[in-house]
Amino acid sequence: MKKKPFVTKEQLEKITSEYATPFHLYDEAGIRENARALKEAFSWNKGYREYFAVKPTPNPFLMDILRDYGCGYDCSSLTELMLSEAVGVEPGDIMFSSNDTPAEEFAYADKLGAIINLDDITHIDFLEETIGRIPETISCRYNPGGLFKITNDIMDNPGDAKYGMTTEQIFEAFRILKRKGAKEFGIHAFLASNTVTNEYYPMLAKVLFELAVKLQEETGAHIQFINLSGGIGIPYKPDQEPNDIAVIGDGVRKVYEEVLVPAGMGDVAIYTELGRFMLGPYGCLVTKAIHEKHTHKEYIGVDACAANLMRPAIYGAYHHITVMGKEEEPHDHMYDVTGSLCENCDKFAIDRMLPKIDMGDYLVIHDSGAHGFSMGYNYNGRLRSAEVLLKEDGSTKLIRRAETPADYFATFDCFEIAEKLPKRENE
Ligand SMILES: *Cc1c(COP(=O)(O)O)cnc(C)c1O
Questions:
Q1: Would you state the pLDDT for residue 87?
Q2: How far, in Å, CA of 191 to CA of 200, rounded?
Q3: Of the candidates 278, 303, 321, which is a domain's last residue?
Q4: pLDDT band at 423 (very low <50, low <70, confident <90, very high)
Q5: Which domain holds residue 374?
Q6: Is the CB of 190 under 6 A from ligand 1?
Q7: What's the gap in Å between 275 CA and the centre of ligand 1?
């Protein structure tokens, strides 16, 4: 499949005349269409709800768009809870799927009426001591251990993951929670990340549904929901076949009818906590070629760096690059596309065949809509970029301004040095 940017060269020229590169650009039309398709794919389940995982793209304007499709929010930290609160939440609108959780965050989540998803059996006592009771609705995170395989392909290694409770522990946790007053239960598991196959969710569903039947039988706890969590991936590479969410939804339905319905559990709600799938393809990093260097290799230096998009540097992840306006030109130049960090891993692409790049060309780095801006950092004193929303009517809206040096220095504000730090004209 050919990967095409969601923005044209003409549109981008207009946008870059208004916002300085680099910036992350988001596609409202794409976000809406995809959210609609997800909702439709699970419409067979009465209680279905997507709790959008805030972690990959914590921007309140984007979170707000997803509310139109009934989404709640999946949070795992204090600031994610606060962002959700700012967007506006009612009790039950937040799933708090945290781990290694500070007491203060359990308390805050409880104050907002979040559904708390316990990562460990020891968190039962920790939570009870923190908030003085066990909530009536509670969820437990499961980790079956071992390898998670689809036929013979190893998808991921839950046995090596820090999350969740063992089988024995989750049974014990349910008994304890029930004794302490919990009335409605949920189970949750996240066993493989960025899966580009329609089989992951149905396979995970089978594991969780069978566990749910046993849990309800053996502990008498009423299971209200099963949370399939995140993990549905996106095709970062042009040769990857995208997931078909309708096929995935139908695959989960089949397992539901095979396992839960015969056990008298046809009232169980299915929840998801997708992040990457919701926003990944609908964001891109827009950057400009500012240097070319011909040494032992051919380098193109751009004005973005790993501080804006870290995945290539830390995971060696592939992100497709389009040189705007040159889509149809022969891709007969091999480049390393680099950022400015004094770290040799700061390369958006290595040995990538691209059309000849001229200084001033705009490069669109695809699929930065999730785990993009959010993983940004300030190494080398680099500042985080702006985020811009391309609206359905073709206009744009700034949804986060770029950092300034004053933001970077803000945590010195209680020291004398603050007065000596130069200010820039626009601050
Ligand atoms: C990161 C995360 C998600 C979202 O994962 P994606 O792969 O982006 O869909 C969902 N749930 C939990 C608990 C997570 O940590």
A1: 97
A2: 9
A3: 278
A4: confident
A5: 281-420
A6: yes
A7: 6
